[in-house]
């Protein structure tokens, strides 16, 4: 993984030293459930999650340059059904919502993925009730494909959630890139 710079952000490999910053938002009841996981209870739990993410080698820390603070994570995750497809995922500290950071970081990662890898499609999903995530996905120009039901485990209980699914094809990427550069 290489570092990716944007105007306001640095995307860099996640590190164990990010545990304190991640724990700050991973304990929030408004963060985890929107992403499909139970809020963290201990810093050790957060450290374990980071260790797992580092082994997957597909998750970046989103660092706000002006504060030199890790404010979230962003990744393109492998999908077993097709090596040419990756799934975009992101989480952001609530204190930084509404500033366009996820959109900015996602654009940079998408450009990197399509320009420097063999990926031909990126998919992204959000729970139907997560309107903020839906707006990010729409700003990125993903195309809605379908709804599906997903079983998640929150607070030890299995729940079924309606999930909206989208895709961005490499063949559509250059047109989207032109639109991104205009905004």
TrEMBL record:
Listed Pfam families: Acetyltransf_3
UniProt organism field: Acholeplasma brassicae
Family note: Belongs to the acetyltransferase family. RimJ subfamily.
Superkingdom as given in the UniProt entry: Bacteria
Domain annotation N-acetyltransferase: ranges: 9-160
Keywords, ordered alphabetically: Acyltransferase, Transferase
GO molecular function: acyltransferase activity, transferring groups other than amino-acyl groups
Official protein name in the record: GCN5-related N-acetyltransferase
Coiled-coil residue windows: none
């Amino acid at each position: 993984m290489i570092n990716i710079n944007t105007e306001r952000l640095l995307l860099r490999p996640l590190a164990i030293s990010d545990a304190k910053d991640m724990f700050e938002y991973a304990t929030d009841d408004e963060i985890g459930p929107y992403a499909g996981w139970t809020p963290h209870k201990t810093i050790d739990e957060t450290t374990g999650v980071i260790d797992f993410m580092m082994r997957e080698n597909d998750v970046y820390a989103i660092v706000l340059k002006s504060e030199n603070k890790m404010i979230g994570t962003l990744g393109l995750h492998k999908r077993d059904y097709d090596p040419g497809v990756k799934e975009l995922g992101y989480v952001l500290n609530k204190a930084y919502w509404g500033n366009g950071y996820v959109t900015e970081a996602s654009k940079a990662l998408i450009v990197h993925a399509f320009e420097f890898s063999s990926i031909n499609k990126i998919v992204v999903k959000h729970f139907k009730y997560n309107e903020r995530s839906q707006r990010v996905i729409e700003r990125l120009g993903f195309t809605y494909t379908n709804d599906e039901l997903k079983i998640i485990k929150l607070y030890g209980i299995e729940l079924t959630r309606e999930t909206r699914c989208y895709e961005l094809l490499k063949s559509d990427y250059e047109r989207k890139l032109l639109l991104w550069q205009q905004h």
